Amino acid sequence: MNALYLAFAYLRYHWGRSLILTLVAALILFVPLATQILLSSSERALVARGEATPLLLGSRGSQLDLTMAALYFSDERPDPIPMREVEVIWESGLAIPIPVHTAFSSSEFRIVGTSLDYFDFRDVEIAEGRGLSVLGDAVIGSDVAETLGKGVGDSILSSPENLFDLDGVYPLEMPIVGVLAPTNSPDDQAIFVDIKTAWVIQGIGHGHEDVVTAAEVAAGSDAVSNAAVVQYQRITQDNIESFHFHGSQDDFPTSAVIVVPNDTRSATILKGRYLDTELPTQMVEPAGVIQGLVDRIFRIKSLLDVVTTIIAIAALAAIGLAVFLSYRLRAREIATAVKLGARRGMVLRLLSAETITLLLVSSGIAGVGAFIVSRNAESWVGWLLALGS
Amino acid sequence: MISVEDLSFRYSDTSFRLRVPEFSLRNDDRVAIVGPSGSGKTTLLNLIAGILTPEAGRIDVAGTDVAQLSDVDRRRFRASTIGFVFQDFALLDYLSARQNILYPYRITPALTLDAAARDRSEALAASCGIGDKLDRHPNALSQGEQQRVAICRALVTQPKLILSDEATGNLDPDSKSRILDLLFEQATQAGAAVLAVTHDHELLPRFERVLDFAQFREGAAA
B170 — contact with chain A (CB < 8 Å)? Predict the structure, then answer.
């Protein structure tokens, strides 16, 4: 106890030095811990979403781009495939196809055009309001609601962009009819609409006399989030009947199709049908694609581990030098203690108590930090994975 | 209090050699040791305290043959029987004056820090005129005040012998006189003998006896 008493008195008196040593040691302990926790959570989150999506149909090309776009609503934009591919799957009777149209966004959040099957498939719950039912309806993820401060009864406007080079397409104002419960997945960062609504945004479907003019905007509408937008489409009870699509729906685009096979056999049969590399479409297993990505990340992590270890060794050596110099500076104190009759090992005990106290406090700080990271890992990883989407 | 007979000591790596045929100190003696630098004055104090062990001879302190004790026993003996006062005070900067006075109780199981020890430290500080400065750290005290703290630390364990190694060497002339008076006064109250190494010949008349160490030294300085 006396050694601890003296150690604490020394550390408290030299609080600046103690604080720096403690924080440096805490950082050395915390960084690898936090990295490990976040990486493990990332791996779990990535793999879990990949494993929860049995098959994915999309245009031939980068399997990773296709997977990232369809599962994580990332910036990658694989070439669209026609909706007839959805019908082909339906007609095979081997699986349920769920189209995913991710070409548009609103306020940096991806607009995901899909079918109602998506919500059942992902098992997401509506926390507020209702699901999609009418053309133009939007259901937003929990992060979207929180970030934009919007909820049921508000509206949201698609960003004014035109990916498919069609002229005369105005952004679409969509009423928010539901807010999803948090899932700590990319769904929290998405705005869900029926795929037909996505086609309206794309300009494939449109109504008549549905454009809100600049004068109307000036008269006071709170729907406009972008000052540059002066005209946009609005689907109302009065004009919904006038909305229509030109051409065959079979030719309309979708970014990808999530394929939920009835069983393993069905999955095998379906995969076999898309093996031909001459086909414009491909069937991928997201779990395998994601595992490849995770393996790559963890190969990079091994390199990071080496770098972290080298830095930790250097930092520990610096701490050791600081402690050693501190002990040298205290040689007089040690000599005094010996002259006053200090017990054998008392000096070692005293110095050990100081070092152990520092390490314990550092470990405590690192532990609290790691606990906080651990508690929030899922949501932080969800946010990290959604970055760039 | 102290009885030294045929004491012989040498440092292994030098030609320095100390021989003390006979030396004694009574229970209430105030004895000064003088001599040129390197004559072995501090070495004798260290031998009496059991910090060094002699090659030959006998050192009896308060009825104990110090040279015959084990290292552990010498440490315990030193902590419980001897009070040290150093030229540089040897106070710890991170402890308050109060904690410095009680420092010996923190470093050895030979002493027990109890209420009596705490009361004694308060009383000693008050009698040395630093009762109102006990919560200050050494850097907030004058040199004279620091040496008073060191004297309190030497006396708080109620030792039978005070070893003073140039305790007034760093003080101005007025403070030297006051500190020496204080040391003697407190030692008298505690019933302790004082053996003091000093270079200050002006202070010698205050001691009962003076031991010139030049006669004991052989060879070069350590």
Answer: no
